[in-house]
Write a structure and sequence with these properties.
single chain; 8-stranded parallel β-barrel; 9 helices
């Protein structure tokens, strides 16, 4: 099954949107998961850059805000940000708006709860539905967050939110750390899966770690997943908003290796 392939631009660190879009387009990808400072970069500018490079916008990566905090002001700040991100996305078309827990130091005591996370997500779902935008909740891993770590957690979250416009984003790097069976996780989330992010177990390109992508893509075909596949290969210690943490050439080699594997996989499974 042929699927569109994209790249998230945060992996390029401090390269600006035009530079990263040119790299992604020149490498022959279909689209981008966009991460920008929505306070300083107008949506119209992002739209023009993507159109100039013939790239679709598949999803928007959020900055790090806390939807689960017990502190009402902190939670409201997060809601305000996500509502702005939804409005921003509406100007770009209809990309998936990624949601996730607050990324934080796990050794520090945390005042927050899954109940507040559910409440915040319910509010955002209502807001997004009015804008004709879908949200996508992404489970991370135990080293980054506390509540939504795997496919069971995120399915339970969706059942509590009880809305049709909250979807699921699965990321193989996080899944490798938290899932008992990556293929069963795909099957479990099949009706809600909107974006499939991939990087190998070491966050390098496909085949440079130990994840079995062949069986995963057979499972994606089995559930007839037609959404985009977004490459999120990155250097160690790279996070959204941080400077490039290694060689650009090495990063591009991860993308090239992965793209070649994906194209070969499509031809093999036809």
């Amino acid at each position: 099954m042929k699927r569109k392939i994209g790249v998230t631009n945060w992996i390029f660190g401090n390269l600006d949107l035009v530079e990263s879009a040119k790299i992604i387009a020149d490498m022959g990808f279909d689209g981008m998961e966009v991460y920008v400072d929505i306070e300083t970069v107008p949506a119209a500018e992002v739209k023009k850059v993507l159109e100039d490079h013939n790239l679709e916008v598949f999803s928007l990566t959020p900055s790090n805000f806390d939807l689960a905090s017990n502190d009402r002001k902190i939670r409201q700040t997060a809601l305000d940000y996500y509502q702005k991100l939804i409005d921003y996305g509406a100007e770009l078309g209809n990309p998936i708006i990624t949601c996730h827990e607050h990324i934080q130091n796990q050794s520090v005591a945390y005042l927050g709860s899954v109940d507040w996370l559910i409440d915040s997500c319910q509010k955002l779902s209502i807001y997004a539905e009015k804008a004709n935008i879908k949200l996508g909740f992404e489970p991370l891993n135990r080293y980054l967050c506390r509540f939504i770590l795997n496919s069971i957690d995120v399915m339970n979250l969706l059942s509590q939110i009880d809305t049709k416009n909250m979807t699921i984003i699965l990321d193989t790097f996080h899944m490798n750390l938290e899932e008992d069976d990556l293929n069963q996780a795909i099957i479990r989330c099949q009706d809600s899966l909107s974006i499939y992010q991939i990087a190998d177990s070491n966050r390098k390109g496909i085949g440079l770690g130990h994840i079995d992508f062949t069986n995963q893509f057979k499972t994606l075909d089995q559930i007839r997943y037609q959404g985009p596949v977004v490459l999120e290969c990155a250097h160690a210690r790279q996070t959204p908003g941080s400077p490039l943490a290694g060689s650009l050439d090495e990063l591009m080699s991860y993308l090239n290796i992965s793209k070649r594997w994906l194209i070969k996989q499509e031809l093999t499974l036809v």
